[in-house]
Amino acid sequence: MSPHETVDDLAAEAAALGGPTVSQQEFDELFEQVKTWGKYSNPSAGAWEAVGPAAAIEAASLVRTGTTVSMALPWNTTSGPGNANPALHYMTDLGVREAPEPSCNKDFIGVDYHGKAVSHLDALSHIAYKGQLYNGNSSRDTVTAVGAEFGSVTALGTFVAPAVLLDFTVLFDEPWLEPGKAIRASDILAAEEKLGVKIQPGDAVLIRSGHFRRQREWGVWDPSNSSAGLHVDCMPLLAERDIRLLGGDGDSDVRPSPTPGIHSPVHILAITAMGLPLLDNLDLEALGQACKDEGRYRFMFVVAPLNIPGGTGSPVNPIAVF
Amino acid sequence: MSPHETVDDLAAEAAALGGPTVSQQEFDELFEQVKTWGKYSNPSAGAWEAVGPAAAIEAASLVRTGTTVSMALPWNTTSGPGNANPALHYMTDLGVREAPEPSCNKDFIGVDYHGKAVSHLDALSHIAYKGQLYNGNSSRDTVTAVGAEFGSVTALGTFVAPAVLLDFTVLFDEPWLEPGKAIRASDILAAEEKLGVKIQPGDAVLIRSGHFRRQREWGVWDPSNSSAGLHVDCMPLLAERDIRLLGGDGDSDVRPSPTPGIHSPVHILAITAMGLPLLDNLDLEALGQACKDEGRYRFMFVVAPLNIPGGTGSPVNPIAVF
Amino acid sequence: MSPHETVDDLAAEAAALGGPTVSQQEFDELFEQVKTWGKYSNPSAGAWEAVGPAAAIEAASLVRTGTTVSMALPWNTTSGPGNANPALHYMTDLGVREAPEPSCNKDFIGVDYHGKAVSHLDALSHIAYKGQLYNGNSSRDTVTAVGAEFGSVTALGTFVAPAVLLDFTVLFDEPWLEPGKAIRASDILAAEEKLGVKIQPGDAVLIRSGHFRRQREWGVWDPSNSSAGLHVDCMPLLAERDIRLLGGDGDSDVRPSPTPGIHSPVHILAITAMGLPLLDNLDLEALGQACKDEGRYRFMFVVAPLNIPGGTGSPVNPIAVF
Amino acid sequence: MSPHETVDDLAAEAAALGGPTVSQQEFDELFEQVKTWGKYSNPSAGAWEAVGPAAAIEAASLVRTGTTVSMALPWNTTSGPGNANPALHYMTDLGVREAPEPSCNKDFIGVDYHGKAVSHLDALSHIAYKGQLYNGNSSRDTVTAVGAEFGSVTALGTFVAPAVLLDFTVLFDEPWLEPGKAIRASDILAAEEKLGVKIQPGDAVLIRSGHFRRQREWGVWDPSNSSAGLHVDCMPLLAERDIRLLGGDGDSDVRPSPTPGIHSPVHILAITAMGLPLLDNLDLEALGQACKDEGRYRFMFVVAPLNIPGGTGSPVNPIAVF
């Protein structure tokens, strides 16, 4: 707060930062607009049903220099802002269980991976709106203590297709977008223009806000409260572009949410309305640099979730190949 | 046991099945023969240090039909033979923790993934011989209750390179290799011949014994006791071929071991002597079919382990792209 | 099966062993007969609401020789029959996390404690019949992914009162009761007579079948299928005696169940109808010996469950003091 | 900090608060002074070896009003200061796994219980000084990835004996002792005098500093940095009194430690030198009130740790009976 700002200035700035408020009614209209219920023969897979051999072929055709970049945050066993449920990592053997040779070191990993601390994929069972999952399935009836009957990560399988990185730090020429900054549909168009890339039908789209550069320089904060991300007005555009996967270094949603009473509207529009899986909390710092170095923002993209029947998602380590 | 067999016949059969016994002295000579200690500037990464852009480019050049095949067994929460420490999968939210919209379904996963039940990658910290990890690092000093300082899975990074499937059910024209059946160096050469493929320097090599076809048809057994796999005499050949990754539908080792007092000799030669990570317990049934259908046994191969600092490996879901 | 037995003989034996079949209608009448809904001002605590200072005073008055006996099975990390979800026990520090002095050894414990492998207490949220918990609370509405709002173990608190051991191996003069053997109401009366003990209002009642002596001598079996325990006809008697806690070396229910379609009728009658917590899987071998040595079957009894808000029970280590 | 205090005043206050510094040499002399190595035939049980029937009889003789008080903090699944590794509590069944009746609610609990957030018992394997556990056992050789061969919680068994509460909020007539406040040997004598109680040989001793009253009124802080507790000069007095168990609403150690380079000197003197188990993080608020109400500070005390072979301790819910 500079010395000359007033409280009203700040409110105006906040509004400018987060974009226009969207009423619940407007949100519901957006929901109807982008909805693809009934579109897929295997609705548990949603948009990934349409990821086929042609996508893999096109993806492979984008490989020229062979540079590979992975995007998983380190397994984070330290609680703190944004990591209320730290991952577990325990050594279960240090060469003493089996005899005599070889001796084996083994470890246990455990994680409640949704949230803000683990790079992960959201399957279609993760998000329900008004009690309904994608395609109108009742969340209460299909997701129980034994897991998800509908929309499990196993139903998704794996992902091999082209992806586009929209690096908004390049568009805005800032080291990072401030938490709370909304990316608008017009920004997506501007980013395509500036980066010289165009989202194609069937692509994955990754959003870089510079989240982890900011975190490394300024320290950790809790992105549940304040995070750069997409304003809901981006979703009709992304629906039109017929994408298969959306991800970012946040969790795609700008926070605070532009829609009162709905904390994650992009999650709802993507997962519940469009059947579009999300990738949350990707470390896109190296990818941003690679795209700059390679001079292009479209590349082969591979996501290999764990095969967890009934799982609502999976920790993942996505890979770009240039 | 057919009615005309004698106990002596059976013993002879068992010996034939498992291949010749290898004394500890002979094993130690093999160890010295294939050892690559000092070869890599980042010994924690071992053979993966040498996986670079050229491998990714060559891998992508193998993509023609775009068929993708993944290889992870389902997350197995049911204890039984070969799964003494079943994986955990608990629902941590069923739409009740956060209010009001959307409601979220979330789950916790946990696993002590080494063993015979989880498709996983072994990093170089996993196996020590005579107290030493790869490159001579002391296991006791470098792997402690806080994890592996040397040879962690994070040091490996990810893998994008060509892979060859050696499908020994095709070579032997059997639905599967019987547990205990040793694959010999000469079998590898014969498989290359029969399958029309040649392992190139830099490749991953996958071994299909039909393990999971047998399991599906005959039921589960504990492969710790009896499993088809490589006889140690394969390792000088694979060392000569300069491969970067070895995996299979078992854990690469034939069991019982041909070397008395050493339960996993291939693990030692690969990981500890050669710095070669292993992939254990892959479901290669679909891959075998795909290779047959595609008419080729070499393809793009991607492995994306979780980024677990200090981890001795990771559950993975490897992907072949044809 | 002796050589002269026929299949009909076996069926008759099984019927004799397990006691008479009880129809669902008869079961529902029993339910109504023993039901105490509305009796307690804090129905989450059920029968433990009535455990007060007088019980502790009487319990202490039973202490004469000072012999103490505890009853918890060892934490069982080995999967097997009756232990499908083995407990976790991992070392989380071996003197390396904190510097410099002292060095600390630490461990993680984890367990899904219901089942047959862990000595544990069942709180009133554990068992629902026709969707209802004790006092008519809806299980679906009050027990969710965040835990039990009604009938949690924290609502129970701790237990200090007299307990009676009914040692049926003494009554029947056998080393153990065979799995499947039903204990009948008349057996309880006979045991009181033979052991010279009488269940008083406010007591805990412990049932010894010799389960763990049999297990140690004959090996582990899965008591889900076959277990000595109480026939439902015991419950009106126990209700009349106004007991506060029921436990045993099985889980109180004879298995197979005498009531078709209801796998744990004693659980329902105790927990759901009577508001009576249960103690399952206690090792009563030492207690049986102590009662014999002390010449009495009533003693001070202390149960100290973990304070788990929303928990459906707790692993425990109950203590008898003579 | 009152407006008239200076920085020098504060430093003097801090020194006064924490008591005199104790050099490492003085600490080592204290260690030798209170050491009981060689005293017990079962050194894994240490001071609990001496807890026998007479202690239970005397404990029971203290029961007059029958008031019972338990001391376990609630299972804390929320990370925060002092709770970096929050406990796990997941529902594993909500009535859907077993069919048809009854339906069962089940849960998983998991915890790395040492630290400041869980009421727990420290067994003798928990603390090593200069690499040695109690009785001179090598920590490195006896505590490994498979658990503690020496000094496990199972070796301790259970505890039934008299206990004395030393309520220092009464002695100092304050609602709580400020974090950092050292309790001195002379304070113990003064507390005995003021409370009208005398620690007898064989007793447990509980120290109330009002920790949790302060936490409830002022909020959570991390007691690793600042906590009221015993100055090391208390330990010769407690050794002389021949106590069997020491516990408190902190972890017995005043923090910061009076001995540079030794973060938990009371832990060392109690566990490693004296073979005296500790109870950490007990909620003593209700007990303090009960002692005041009952007009006495000595009572029956029962601790029933879980039976974890190889465990370094256990979460517990200790019970006082008046």
TrEMBL record, chains A, B, C, D:
Record SUPFAM superfamilies: Putative cyclase
InterPro entries named in the record: KFase/CYL, KFase_sf
A Pfam family hit: Cyclase
Name this protein carries in UniProt: Kynurenine formamidase
Organism: Arthrobacter stackebrandtii
